[in-house]
């Protein structure tokens, strides 16, 4: 879920598989996504869903200036089941009327020469803000179809939904642990 972050330094990019030019990037919503997976019925099986409305900005610069902010509209949840989507939007889970967005703001990043590392930041969900750390991988960098500079990352991690006040059905209906994956493609501005 939401989500991911990427405060990346130019020096870190130089060591990554494909160098990324410093500058401001905007998240390309058509080529980015936030996904979640949770254990159903206390872990009998795994259930997946996604959010279809993701936006945000990346700044690639020196470490103290690099950052990412991601906003996900909770109303855009998509479980591929209309009835379940309605329940997930209710106060039992995301409470989309009271909390229409969830956000991530980065606080730091570490990438090795292979473009792998971690990113820390603050995740706000249901009005609760908690520090989180995600694994981070640079997928690639290059020119888009119109010659624009693009860069891609994947951030993955696990949170406990009860940390954010999402207590419904734990652990019988769904596990407390939620695996998150955020795919980001940024376009240089």
Give an overview of the whole structure:
The chain has 189 residues and is mainly beta. The protein has a single domain, classed as Lipocalin, CATH 2.40.128. It has helices at residues 10-15, 82-89, and strands at 23-27, 33-40, 45-51, 54-60, 67-73, 77-78, 101-111, 116-125, 128-143, 149-160, 174-188. Strands 1-4-5-7-8-9-10-11 form an eight-stranded antiparallel barrel. It starts with 9 loop residues before the first helix and ends with a strand. This is Lipid/polyisoprenoid-binding YceI-like domain-containing protein.
Question: Can you tell me the residue ranges where pLDDT is under 50 for at least 5 consecutive residues?
Answer: 1-16
Q: Which class best fits the helix and strand makeup?
A: mainly beta
Number of helices: 2
Q: Which CATH first-tier class would you pick?
A: Mainly Beta
What fold name stands as the CATH topology? Answer: Lipocalin
Sum up the overall morphology in one term.
Answer: elongated
Report the end-to-end length measured between terminal Cα atoms. 25 Å
Q: How are the strands of the largest sheet arranged?
A: 1-4-5-7-8-9-10-11
Work out the strand percent: over 45%
- CATH homologous superfamily heading: Lipid/polyisoprenoid-binding, YceI-like
Question: What number of domains?
Answer: 1
The number of strands is 11
Helical coverage, percent range = under 10%
Radius of gyration (Å): 17 Å
Order of helices and strands: HEEEEEEHEEEEE
Largest sheet: 8 strands, antiparallel, barrel
Give average pLDDT, whole number.
88
